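Researcher: I'm preparing a figure for a lab meeting and need a structural model of a single chain. I don't have an experimental structure, so a prediction will have to do for now. The sequence is pasted below. Please return the structure as tokens so I can convert it later.
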Amino acid sequence: MITLKFKLYQHKRNRCLKRSINAAGVIYNHCIALHKRYYRMYGKHLNCAQLQAHIAKLRKRNPFWQLVGSQAVQDICRTD
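Model: Understood. Here is the structure written out token by token.
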């Protein structure tokens, strides 16, 4: 996982970047919640391919999640 630290100053041109960062955070939190729920229910770890397929289905219905590219979503799923 690559972690970058930077400061975004208030400017109207950063709106799109902030939205995509927030969308990526929501997707990441959803993946963590799914991992916890799956382990609690079945006692096993969630398969990465199943998680990616599930997130791809959810991205089709949620326009906010479409702000993040598909390859970035796969990277988010792989880091859990």
